Amino acid sequence: MSSYLIMTELRKILPFPTQREKIQRLVKTSPSPSLARSNLARLVESGGAGALKNFPEDYYLSLIRLLGGSAYLSDVLIREGERWPDLFLRQIAIEANSAADHVAALAPVLQENPSLESFASALRRYKQREYLRIGARDLLPSTSVEETMRELTALAEASLEIAYRFSRREVERDYGKLILPSAERNNRFVILGMGKLGGEELNFSSDVDLIYFYEEEDGESAGGAKGRIAPRGFFEHVAEKITRAVGEVTEEGFVFRTDLRLRPLGRNGPLVQPVASAALYYESWGQCWERSALIKARPVAGDKDLGAEFLREVEPFIYRRYLDFTTVEELRHMKMRIEKELLLPQDGARNLKLGRGGIREIEFFTQALQLLNGGYHPGIREHNTLRALSSLAHHDLIPFTEAAGLSEAYRFLRQVEHKIQMLQEAHAHSIPEGRKEELALSRRLGYSPSPGKSERRIFWRDYRRHTVFVRRAFDRLFYSAQKEIRSGRASTLEEMWSDLDQEKLIIEQLAQLGFEDPETAYRNLLAVRDGEEYAPPSPRRLKVMRALGPALLAETTRSGSPDQALFNLAEFSHRVGARTGFLSLLAENPKTMRLLITLFANSQFLTDLFLKRPELLDTLIRVDLTQMKKSKEQMRDELRMSLSEAADVQAQLNALRRYRAEEFIRIGLHDLGGSLELAEVIGQLSDLADTCLEDALSLAAGEIEKSFGKIDGGRFAVVGMGKLGGREIDYNSDLDLIFIYAAPEIQSSGGKSGSLAAHEYYVRLGQKLITYLTAPTEEGVAYKLDLRLRPSGRSGPLVSSVEAFRYYHQTSSALWERQALTKSRFVAGDAELGKEAEKITESFAYARDFTGDDIAAIHHLRMRMEKELAKEDPAHFDLKKGKGGMVDIEFVTQMLQLCHGFRLPQVRQRSTMDALSALRENQVLNKSEYRLLSEGYLFLRRLDHRLRLERDQSIDILEREPVRLRSVAQALGYKTSSRRQKQSEKDPGERLLRDYELWRERIRACYDRHFSPRQESPQEQG
Hints:
It is a single chain. The chain is mainly alpha-helical and 1022 residues long. The strands form three sheets. Strands 1, 2, 3, 4 and 5 form a five-stranded mixed β-sheet that branches. Strands 6, 7, 8, 9 and 10 form a five-stranded mixed β-sheet that branches. Strand 2 (208-214), helix 12 and strand 3 (258-259) form a beta-alpha-beta unit. Helix 30 (590-602) packs across helix 32 (617-623) and helix 42 (886-900) runs parallel beside helix 47 (988-1016). The longest helix has 31 residues, at 145-175. The chain starts with a helix and ends with a helix. Residues 1014-1022 have low confidence and may be disordered.
């Protein structure tokens, strides 16, 4: 029956005109009316007129769209003969099948004990019926591309799983079971899905990329009809049968084409190999493209636990904690290869996969960012492209608008790919040529005409919009950096850079650029260009520096301290030596380059931290992408993850120090950039100190337990004092600590080194904690500790029982200790014990009124500190302990807290600023005194903070040298004044020094008002 006759025959087949008209209308609007008519005729011929006559009218749309949309799926339906309505209606009613559903449906096939040929045939028939269901639903507008990809992936997983079960059973018949010699269980086998299968993104004619692994090499099978065999041979037979069952092309087609080229060593590698061998391969010889491929790896069949264990083992290979600095270059080369693979413009315009702005570019964009950032952000370790784009945006690695645009483009391109491939189940990726073919594709995609625009024209509009968006994002991934780094002032300095060997000329130009010591700057510039002192620069280095050098010089001249920036840049160049990858990384990240120069110019503290470990450049790259502020919980989670990845205690201590350094750089760079206020910086540094203490204590406790066991009912707590207790930690602040324990008088349970009494046990724990925090490792020292505030100071025991701690403060402690306890705070260990310690310290500090004698004693201590510790002279000030320094404000604050805290619990605040605010709110301080003390304290803290950050100067010394203070002043907001002002007032350093002297006089006057009159009061003397 011809396709045209069928439309006439419908009058005989269908009794109601409405039915005939509906089918005719649907045929006319189907993707391909001629294909729909032809397939409808074949369907009637195959199944008889009665089959169509009894077919429910509600399903006409689905049926005709299928007949006009896919010759392949129509053939599957037509081959069913008169049973086609039952098959179609049964399949279309199933919304989705999971992999488990498919396995359950296929399991009876195994029970029939089929031959390989019969089994393969059953698999192919099942696949065709499922493709009919998935394809018919995919042609409906309500079905998303994600649903279709999930469905196809689930079918592939189940097919592989059932094929594995069949194949292993067959091999066991020949050679017997393969049991591990060391355990009474099977030697395990897993199939890793790679590419689109691993990503749960299969399309209608995808290859399935597979890797076969087994557990162990040892032993041999139990023996069968063909004897015994070693594990490799056993699993080679299993893998060959799976591949044949699933991928071999027979008269009934194939289930899925299989591709095994992603296995270790590719075509030259063994078909199967043990997981240990594969892990060693990746660790020793794995390349960047293999890291990229493993992003999508997922266990899909066999023993999935074995696959998960393997992927956990190779995760550090895929996602490196620190960039190895060849990654960017390798990714760039991969990108260049993708560019070369692109078809010519006339061909590429139609290729969904390899064309410009196509699927390959979206996948590369996503995986490149995952490789670069996955070591630092575990949340982006996602094998599915759409979910990966979403996670990249949520981790601030790309803008949400870019993630949304790329996701929309990916969905669109994959949907088009489905609709092309379902026509003939062809492995095709190009838009078919010809107006008729383009129109059919547009209709399969659900396009309808609009006034003045055909379906085909609307499709091409959308296609170009998406591919242009993708192409721009793909270009920005690397090319934008090269354009940016050559722009602006850098381009004007290229000639100077090329003339760098003309010493006299370059020195003159450096002087004109604002360098104070152009001769030294010239030597440093040569060091930047050449790297190692006694080795000629490599051609690769010279090539990178031709682009990067002028940009570095331009950024250096723009910085606040060009000479210092260039000196540190030369030192950096010397440290990285021949590792040109560092320089390539800067060339690819102009923002990072600018951050690096900012660091070198404005903070010797951060610079020194960085130069000890240039690998921290990775942190620098991410700093603009990381949160400016992190909660303590976030820090705790991140540090614990780093510790969990370390192999032993030494590696854990290095990880702790490395995390602290990374966080210092993160906080410091946001600090330098003005993104964080002083209070926020101090809060972040205090949370970081708490976090490091908590985890160091956990590590120490674990080691003590290994050596001496546990003490049942024993508890240990760390109390922070001083700046730590007040949450006022600054860069390189010491941590003032007290150790307290509570335990019954029993011996520990015992370990490899014996057992200990409670006190000695916790002394060892305290000593171990001190060692873990203060011992230098290759990553440096974590924190400097001060334990002199413990009961009885240096002469007292390292740890105190809670009873002894309470008794000491009730009977023996000095007045200065009562003052120090205003800042005590539980920071680590047993929370219940820590809170008990806080109650003890608070009840002692605020137990009674403060007398005139107490105030006089505090004043006497303050004057001794100024005289014996500050040691100020006409050339130097002491910001902290000198006249009008921070200690003046802290002593006034603490004295007032101790005087009034007995009756006013609200003033019992640990932080100086919080305490001042509470004293004002409770009318202990008047408004003018509060403003003076709070603003003065902030002025001194900011100045001290900036000195620490800029010079790594934490000894509170301020010199009376305006020139040396100029950069500090500028960083604090002092600008060079106008020409009309006096010369002395133009210099920012001079004005900073003048303000400081004014503040110290005002602060000391306020201090004297609160202390001196009280000393001379006749009533209090009496």
